[in-house]
Design a protein that fits this description.
Elements: E1 2-11, H1 15-22, E2 35-42, E3 53-60, E4 63-75, E5 79-86, E6 89-100, E7 103-114, H2 117-154
Antiparallel strand pairs: 1-7, 2-3, 3-4, 4-5, 5-6, 6-7
Length: 155
């Protein structure tokens, strides 16, 4: 699997407060500026977000893009992993929270695994552009989450 992009941010809040925002997938559009719409397809259990499945519409490269996503693994308040299968690729991302002396560090890693010859060829030719765009997108998402968590802590 190819690591496409990774980033992190420091948040002045405990891991449980960060978790409360990132695990609130049905309301993610309220916290992340690029997300235009969330449509829950399958709810998670009462005890975990594993299994929640949704359609997410967000602005990507100036256009609306909708992907079906689901949480494959999670441990509150430490991490959760999301999977997407689209365009002959499997995409996996991981949001992880670690306690720090000043609050929390939220990190996100995004991986792409092309599944067809054509997808592998496209990745070889255009992967550098995807990495740059994804890194910017991840950094903005993390900034948005930081603001949402720290504003919630202030109130």
């Amino acid at each position: 699997m190819n690591l496409v992009a990774s980033s992190h941010t420091e948040i002045a809040a405990d891991p449980e407060s960060v978790w409360a925002v990132i695990a609130d997938i049905p309301n993610a559009a309220e916290h992340i500026s690029a997300i235009k719409k969330i449509e829950i397809i399958q709810a998670a259990s009462a005890h975990s977000i594993v299994g929640i499945k949704w359609k997410e519409t967000r602005e990507w490269l100036g256009k609306d893009a909708t992907e079906t996503m689901w949480v494959t693994d999670a441990l509150s308040p430490s991490f959760y992993e999301v999977r997407v299968e689209s365009h002959f690729c499997i995409y996996n991302s991981r949001l992880a929270i670690a306690a720090t002396d000043t609050g929390s560090r939220l990190s996100m890693d995004f991986h792409c695994s092309p599944q067809s010859f054509g997808a592998k060829l496209m990745w070889l030719l255009t992967g550098w552009m995807a990495r740059k765009s994804l890194r910017k997108s991840i950094e903005q998402d993390l900034r948005d989450i930081k603001v949402a968590v720290e504003q919630a802590e202030a109130h």
